[in-house]
Design goal:
The protein has 276 residues and is an alpha+beta fold. The chain folds into 3 domains: 104 residues, Helix Hairpins, CATH 1.10.287.1260; 48 residues, SH3 type barrels (Roll), CATH 2.30.30.60; 80 residues, Alpha-Beta Plaits, CATH 3.30.70. The chain contains 6 helices and 8 strands, in the order ααααββββββαββα. The strands form 2 sheets. A 5-stranded antiparallel sheet has the order 4-3-2-1-5. Strands 6-8-7 form a 3-stranded antiparallel sheet, with helices on one face. The relative contact order is 0.08. The mean pLDDT is 82.
Length: 276
């Protein structure tokens, strides 16, 4: 029992001695950390406000704000460690060795981060744009260092690693997407009248963009019909819905205007050879 009391007394003395010796360093480090976190948040908000004031991209604004916050916190941690007399050189060397070794195991994620940084800095597209990347198309919902997220009219979310975006051919139609289709009319009907009817039909759809304006004209002279081509721009997430409604309305409008939409047909001529 006596030995246990002596051990407890020794432990208490060590704790008291540590507190007396390092109390000011600990208190100083805690104060530095608290002040540093407050300053980091303030600096991050300040940078974001400046970016928003200069109408910078939302993704780039968030990235710069986060980067400033992390940099300030790292410097604060270095200062706080210095209060204990701890040298950061061994830590930096260890982190460098770990980073060198991890770079081989993390080539995929690191390449995504590098590509994400390139996208954020060069801004080939931004949130809200309509992007076509290889065979995938949708509205850009989010851009991070690792991946880019698209959403479709069917409420699908497409997550694309950034390394598969940089270096590819990208198609950016901004907030709209073009509808390209055609409707055939009879050779006996007036194509100018059909074009006017379709123009009036498209005006009934407020979601169809007026800038650029719809393009309507003779697309080709086919075997059984004159094909009237239509090109108009609609919000990406209303693409198919608008296209189907326009097709139905155009069909009904042409029918009401007594313009025929023919079906494929062939004329067969039978030639009877005279007997000798």
């Amino acid at each position: 029992m006596k030995e246990e009391i002596e051990t407890l007394q020794n432990l208490t003395n060590i704790v008291i001695e540590f507190i007396v010796t390092y109390s000011f360093q600990i208190l100083g480090a805690i104060i530095i950390l608290i002040v540093g976190i407050i300053v980091a948040r303030w600096a991050s908000r300040l940078v974001m406000r400046l970016c928003e004031k200069n109408n910078m991209d939302v993704v780039l604004t968030k990235f710069l704000g986060s980067a400033v916050k992390i940099i300030v916190i790292v410097f604060v941690l270095i200062i706080a460690l210095g209060k204990f007399g701890i040298s950061i050189a061994p830590f930096i060397a260890a982190l460098g060795a770990l980073a060198f070794g991890a770079s081989f195991a993390l080539q995929g994620p690191l390449s995504n981060y590098g590509a994400g940084l390139m996208i954020i800095m060069t801004r080939p597209f931004t949130v809200g744009n309509t992007m076509t990347i290889k065979e995938f198309s949708g509205v850009v919902e989010d851009i991070t260092l690792a991946y880019t997220t698209l959403s479709t009219e069917d409420n699908e979310r497409i997550t694309i690693p950034n390394k598969h975006i940089v270096g590819e051919i990208l198609k950016n139609s901004f907030e709209n997407r073009v509808v390209e289709t055609a409707i055939g009319i009879s050779y006996h009907d007036n194509p100018q009248k059909a074009i006017e009817v379709i123009h009036e039909t498209l005006k009934k759809f407020p979601q169809i963009s007026s800038d650029p304006a719809p393009q309507i004209g003779i697309q080709e002279f086919a075997d059984s019909a004159i094909n009237i081509g239509m090109r108009y721009w609609v919000p990406t997430k209303q693409y198919f819905k608008t296209q189907y409604e326009v097709n139905l309305a155009a069909h009904q409008a042409l029918k009401d205007a007594k313009i025929t939409i023919p079906f494929p047909q062939h004329d067969v001529h039978i030639v009877e050879q005279s007997k000798k």
